[in-house]
């Protein structure tokens, strides 16, 4: 076996792991890896900021299910990646960030752009490691991919000293392949106990979290729900795990991203089967209210997730797909024929039909629900939506409809502003055939708007729908109970940014909308321009300044729901 440059071996590993695109910025300390990339099949997208590169790799990973890769040089490149690593860690996204490093002999001498990035990254990664020997290069990267994918997925950081990158190793790709990743199966007795609890419940719900999407278990979820005739709710990270036009869809519970009828259905339930959900605080709110008198079955691939927020009545460790399949097999063994919809299913349907919120406003300034009504009507079921954090994310979670997995991407737990545009670059790079729509706020757009230049440079087209209330709306509303006023008052006509002109400066089309009747035409125009010119296109919608979805009292209900009558228990022999 001949010796080869160890970075060439690393690139062969990347190719065999299914990586076709990487995102990054070259620098002196990472040039040997870049030299090897030149002779590979891997496409490199040069971003404008390393944080943007991590978010692009994150978006690529979320939509493909594979491990995203971001590359940077030493020093500030690595520290710029920390926010992206934290975001991927919080949302269980497999990603590898590769950093260059000063030569090994200079690491203790405060060399130029030398920082102990491994120690900095440890709290926000599954594994942070520095390559010490050229001979370990291909095997270290194999292990990095295995760790990123295994168990609860997450990010890995690999630091490459310059002198080690220049070394050689003995490597033959013909006798190497990705390391196996275990998909842990549930214990049969735990599955039987779960079905016992479901059978005894009068008003059961299935709660699908992001783990269902990560596990590609949406079909198993649907089959189980249809066989048992149990309504299904989703968390924000689980949007798309279950089609929202399905008769068994039961909405979303939460304190911000929620549907009112979803909250009502949840509070009426007596048992929750939670699969791949973390019970995040924005979902649960007050734990005493959330738990109530209902029982919980918690399914997760990571054992230490069980009992982290509260103790379930039954915990099941396992990969979501075999767990859901095992539950269906056990249910079929007891009752082979699918059940008919019962009183509980009909009740959830009544809540859905009555506890709706208006989205047909004709008001000027535009009310945000009207924007999402137009988005839902204009874009097709296969459209991939990307959104981040703030009032616009809350409105999106409340009003946007989603039908398919990996079509609604949101940085749910970390919530970094600026995530959307670079993430959309990653999504569109992975699936150029799909329509990609970014839903963004005015302030978040400004965090990493330089990445629009990347999309323009590489002809990566998508539509950006900006919900602009001209100031830090969520922060202003959050601070009111505390009597403070630290929010920055930004207005595009009073010293702020003209987003239309900013887009045009990148060579990209943009249009501002101030009347609700103009939204539909603007979305159609943007879709056509993005496809024709192969550029990102902005539709900036000026919305009501004081609109409050997070904390306001108005829910725009059609009518109040009536108290729930007593329901009979599920009869498996029926």
CATH architecture annotation of the largest domain: 3-Layer(aba) Sandwich
Question: For the largest beta sheet, what order do the strands appear in spatially?
Answer: 3-2-4-5-7-6
Helical amount among residues, as a percent range? Answer: 25-40%
Radius of gyration: 25 Å
Helix/sheet category: alpha/beta
CATH class of the largest domain: Alpha Beta
In terms of DSSP E residues, the strand content is 15-25%
**N- and C-termini, Cα separation:** 67 Å
β-strand number: 19
What ranges have pLDDT less than 50 throughout 5 or more consecutive residues? 479-488, 551-559
Dominant shape: globular
CATH fold annotation of the largest domain: Rossmann fold
Tally of structural domains: 3
The average pLDDT value, as a whole number, equals 90
CATH superfamily of the largest domain: Thiamin diphosphate (ThDP)-binding fold, Pyr/PP domains
Looking at how many chains there are and whether they match, the oligomeric state comes to single chain
Counting DSSP H or I runs of 4 or more residues, the number of helices is: 24
| Major sheet attributes | 6 strands, parallel
Task: Walk me through this protein's architecture.
The protein is of the alpha/beta class and 574 residues long. The chain has three domains: 3-175, Rossmann fold (3-Layer(aba) Sandwich), CATH 3.40.50.970; 188-354, Rossmann fold, CATH 3.40.50.1220; 368-542, Rossmann fold. 38% of the residues lie in helices and 16% in strands. The protein has 24 helices and 19 strands. Strands 3-2-4-5-7-6 form a six-stranded parallel beta sheet, with helices on both faces. A six-stranded parallel beta sheet has the order 15-14-16-17-19-18, with helices on both faces. Strand 18 (510-513), helix 24 (519-533) and strand 19 (537-542) form a beta-alpha-beta unit. The longest helix has 15 residues, at 50-64. It starts with a strand and ends in a 32-residue tail after the last strand. This is Glyoxylate carboligase. InterPro entries: DHS-like_NAD/FAD-binding_dom, THDP-binding, Thiamin_PyroP_enz_cen_dom, Thiamin_PyroP_enz_TPP-bd_dom, TPP_enz, TPP_enzyme_TPP-bd. Keywords: Lyase, Thiamine pyrophosphate.
């Amino acid at each position: 076996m001949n010796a080869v440059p160890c970075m060439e071996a690393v690139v062969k590993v990347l190719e065999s792991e299914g990586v076709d695109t990487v995102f990054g910025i070259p620098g002196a300390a990472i040039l040997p890896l870049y030299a090897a990339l030149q002779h590979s099949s891997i496409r490199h997208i040069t971003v404008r900021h390393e944080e943007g590169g991590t978010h692009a790799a994150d978006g690529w990973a979320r939509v493909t299910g594979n491990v995203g890769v971001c590359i940077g040089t030493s020093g500030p490149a690595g520290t710029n990646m920390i926010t992206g690593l934290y975001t991927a860690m919080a949302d269980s996204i497999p990603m590898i960030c590769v950093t260059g490093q000063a030569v090994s002999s200079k690491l203790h001498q405060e060399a130029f752009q030398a920082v102990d990035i491994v120690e900095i990254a440890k709290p926000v990664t599954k594994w942070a490691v520095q390559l010490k020997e050229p001979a370990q290069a291909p095997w270290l990267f194999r292990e990095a991919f295995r760790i990123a994918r295994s168990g609860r997925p997450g990010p890995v950081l690999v630091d490459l000293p310059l002198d080690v990158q220049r070394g050689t190793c003995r490597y033959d790709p013909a006798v190497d392949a990705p390391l196996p990743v275990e998909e842990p199966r549930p214990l049969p007795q735990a599955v039987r106990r779960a079905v016992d609890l479901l059978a005894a419940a009068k008003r059961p719900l299935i709660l699908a979290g992001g783990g269902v999407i990560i596990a590609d278990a949406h079909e198993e979820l649907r089959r189980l729900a249809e066989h048992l005739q149990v309504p299904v709710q989703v968390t924000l990270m689980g949007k798309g795990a279950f089609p929202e036009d399905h008769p068994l869809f039961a909405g979303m519970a939460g304190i911000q991203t929620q549907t009112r009828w979803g909250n009502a259905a949840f509070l009426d339930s007596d048992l929750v089967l939670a699969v791949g959900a973390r019970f995040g605080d924005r979902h649960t709110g007050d734990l005493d209210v959330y738990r109530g008198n209902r029982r919980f079955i918690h399914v997760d691939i990571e054992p230490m997730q069980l009992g982290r927020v509260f103790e379930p009545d039954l915990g099941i460790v396992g990969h979501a797909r075999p767990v859901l399949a095992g539950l269906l097999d056990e249910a079929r063994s007891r009752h082979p024929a699918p059940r008919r919809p019962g009183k509980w299913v009909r009740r959830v349907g009544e809540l859905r039909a009555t506890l709706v919120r208006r989205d047909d406003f004709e008001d000027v300034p535009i009310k945000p629900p009207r924007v999402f009504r137009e988005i839902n009507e204009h874009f097709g079921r296969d459209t991939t939506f990307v959104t981040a954090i703030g009032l616009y994310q809350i409105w999106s979670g409340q009003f946007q409809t989603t039908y398919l997995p990996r079509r609604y991407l949101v940085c749910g737990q970390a919530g970094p502003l600026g995530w959307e545009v670079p993430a959309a670059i990653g999504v569109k790079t992975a699936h150029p055939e799909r329509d990609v729509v970014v839903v963004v706020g005015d302030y978040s757009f400004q965090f990493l708007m330089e990445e629009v230049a990347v999309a323009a440079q590489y002809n990566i087209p998508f539509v950006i729908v900006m919900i602009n209330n001209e100031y830090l709306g969520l922060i202003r509303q959050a601070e009111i109970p505390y009597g403070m006023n630290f929010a920055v008052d930004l207005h595009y006509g009073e010293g702020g940014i003209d987003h239309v002109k900013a887009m045009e400066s990148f060579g990209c089309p943009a249009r501002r909308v101030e009347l609700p009747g103009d939204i539909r035409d603007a979305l159609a125009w943007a879709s056509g321009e993005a496809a024709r010119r192969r550029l990102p296109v902005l539709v900036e919608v000026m919305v009501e300044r004081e609109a409050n979805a997070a904390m306001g009292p108005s829910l725009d209900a059609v009518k109040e729901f009536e108290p729930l009558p007593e329901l009979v228990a599920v009869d498996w022999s029926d």
